[in-house]
Amino acid sequence: MKLVLFSDLHLDAPFEWAPRPLARRRRQALRDALTRIVALAAEVRADALFCGGDLYEQDRFAPDTAEFLRQSFAAAAPLPIYLAPGNHDWYGPESLYRRIGWTPNVHVFSHDRLEAVTLAEGLTLWGAAHCAPANTDGFLESFRVDRGGVHLALFHGSERSWLRAQGSGKVPHASFESAQLERAGLHHAFLGHYHCPVDAERHTYPGNPEPLTFGEDGERGVVIATIGTDGTVARERRSVRATELGDVDVDLTGCATAQEARERVATALTGRTGAARVTLSGELAPEADVAPHDLEDAAPWLEAIVVRAGALRAAYDIDAIAEEATVRGQFVRDVRAADLSDDERRRVLITGLRALDGRADLDVL
Questions:
Q1: Is the pTM of this model over 0.90?
Q2: Residues in Cβ contact with 172 at an 8 Å cutoff, skipping those fewer than 6 apart
Q3: Which of 38, 62, 119, 144 could form a Cys-Cys staple with 123, CB 3.0–4.6 A?
Q4: What is the bridge-based pairing of β-strands 48-51 and 222-227?
């Protein structure tokens, strides 16, 4: 049997980091990703389409989203579609899942315990739902299969060993240990929750199919899984994203004007598409007046640029100034003698020297 797995699409996500027009485009990109996922399932002649949760945002969904989902999955019929609600799209009285008149090819798991669905002779799918936005117990705590054959699971949950290894700030939901899968009699679990892709021996996280924020890495998208008669799983990953959210570091060392900084940012972004987050570093000439937000239109061919200051410094020669028999030389000597932390001392020095130069841009990067 051939399955297509995706999860963590997050339709109607707020994209709080993005300006409003970009946020609207990003939400449309999520819908376009689902359209590509359904088309891919048809292209590879999948026997079923799985969603491991967080299909949409329960706190934000619109009636238009509900109709979009209904039409998208109805158009895929007779392809069976199995949905396992997560903590963001949890199954409750006001759930979108309960409002839609799904076509017969769509099955929504609706209980916070694993329940069986027969996929084919000798092949059983066990699925579960989050029925609250938090505090869902692990689905495997006391679970054991009760029949023979090959057993698959579909749910939204946190594999604990990966979480510990990554030191991630990801909040655990319906957590479990990978060893529990074998003890439960499950051959493989298809999961949602971690946006980072994971291909483990007995479980798979596909990762979010369309970028949600900057800093994402790994081969995210959908997983095409072929299930052997002995329960073995062969996996192939496919990207379905249409846009990029890239991270770019730009060294502004030596730039003496905002125009030079702007040109350096534009050069670094040449050839890129989508949106980019630019982190500035280096040593600017003291006379440079560079504000990160002024560089956010340096590459107009991109959807958006988010600019932030990293290790960016004004290149005053503090040692040389300290030797001067001037007001600013005395200022440097006094600040150096003050009881300040290194960062406080740097900020006071740069702010004071800028003020003594008659500059109005006193914010220290």
A1: no
A2: 158, 160, 163
A3: 119
A4: unpaired
